[in-house]
Structures are given as C-alpha cells and as structure tokens.
Amino acid sequence: MSTGVGTSSCCLSGKLKEGKPVGIEEEIGGLQTYVSAPENNSKEKTIIFFTDIFGYKFNNTRLLADQYAKAGFFVYVPDFFGGDALPIEFLQDAEPPLEVREKLTMVEKGVKTAKVGATLGPWLIKHREGVVKPIIDGFINTIRFTDKTDKVGVIGFCWGGRYAILAAHNEEPGKGVDAAYACHPSLVAIPGDFDPVKRPVSFALGGQDSLLGEKERQHIKEIMEKKKTGNPPVESEIVVYDGQVHGFALRGDWSSEKDKEAMDKAEKQGIEWFKKQLA
C-alpha cells in the first residue's frame, strides 16, 4: 500500500535570491524555456530542471541553473505550467522561516493552512499528473533527440522533485533520462513512486521537512537500499540536511549561515552526482 505525502504551506515558503540570470529564453518543444549554456556550449551533459510551483521564471531557479551551467552542464528550465505558476508573493505571505513558524499559535497555523488549501488545491487539480506528465515526457524526448545531446539528467524541486523520480522509471535504452536528482520532493507516494525506479537517483531531504518525516525518509531509504542489490542494481544516495525545512535547497535564507551552507552543499551534491552519472 502506498502512502501519499501531500503538500503544505512549506511549499510556499522561502527567500528570494538576488542576482541577474545570464541565460536566455526561447521556445523549445512548444514550451517557453530558460536556457543556460556552459562556456564551451556543449550539450554532451544536459540537465532539465523540473521547477517547484513558482515556475521557470523564479529567480532562484534561474540562478541555480546558471551555477550548473558554470559547472559544465547544458541546462534547460521549461515552463510546464503554461504561464500559470503561483505568484512569488506567496513566498513571504504563506509561511515564515522555521524559527518564526515554531512560535505560531494554533489559530495562526490554522489560518495559514486554510490559505494554502484555497490556493494550492485548485492549482494542483489543474496541473495534476494526467495533464502535466505527458508534457514533461514530451519535453524530455525533444531534448533527448536534440542534435549533439548525449546524456540527460533531471533535477526536481518540491513539486518537480516527484516528477524527477517518475522520470527515473524509464529504462528503455536511448530514451528517458540517465539520472535524476530529487530535492525535497512533495506529493510522493511511498512505495508507489519509488518501487519502479530504474535509473540512478540522488535525494536531498530536509531533517525538518513537514512533508517527509523520519518515518517516510526511512521507508524511502529501505526501498532504495534494496534496489542497490537488485537485478539490475540501481544506484542511489540519500542525504538528509539537519535542521532544514521543505524547499531548503532552492528557497533557503541566504542571510543564515546554516541555511546557506545547506544550499551550497545541496548544489554541490547535485553537480557531483551528475558529473558521475552523465560521464
């Protein structure tokens, strides 16, 4: 039986990062896409970003994509929501930092939960799996057969984290993705989304993630450990970042030394994973 792990106000929390993205926007496979290329412009190692609910224009996402490009990857950040990402204002309105959240009264928490439900519920229905997964699969196939593209990896955050895991189900040679990296995935079914994994997957999970608690993390670890000795074996790694909440790898507090360190380590985790798996 699969355990469904939902979404909450944590999906709407976080901080905006300052900086100007250096990539370009263009239409690829019918989708508006942010593209950030490495210095040598090589597509030998390509990465597709599966964004969180704030979409492909979110500055944090684009700046992180630029970091992966600097590390030598050709990066695509497609708009899977057709211009219907949730507004950035929710970052500040829906959920305060962890130290503030812990001081909220039950009434205050109830108000925030109601606000999130009214916002996320209709949006999630509109962008449900049956609608968005064919769009995602189509984009992966478009990139897979783009001239001079060799290995393809996907990285997903929150909402996109689950679809990074689903993308790792495909084992057909020459199709799908070669590796995935899921950062604090939401809306996952355990074990349903993990049992079919056939490609290498790395996970970055928060120790204080309200959507993936210790019980859920342990279940995921057990499933992935068994896969390492399966036939064929599936490589994986799970890194838990102590004290970090849902969304930390993309939307942490850059003014906090602890949060910044976690974000930097999660970035390095992904870069090192893809350097290995896309070699």
UniProtKB/TrEMBL annotation:
**Signal peptide limits:** none
- Location of the Dienelactone hydrolase domain: 32-276
What SUPFAM superfamilies does the database record attribute to this sequence? alpha/beta-Hydrolases (SSF53474)
Q: Name one Pfam family in it.
A: DLH
Tell me which domain of life the UniProt entry assigns to the organism this sequence originates from: Eukaryota
> What GO molecular functions are on record for this protein?
hydrolase activity
InterPro entries xref list: AB_hydrolase_fold, Dienelactn_hydro
Q: Which PANTHER family match?
A: DIENELACTONE HYDROLASE, DIENELACTONE HYDROLASE FAMILY PROTEIN (AFU_ORTHOLOGUE AFUA_4G08790)
* Name listed for the protein in its UniProt record: Alpha/beta-hydrolase
Source organism (scientific name): Tothia fuscella
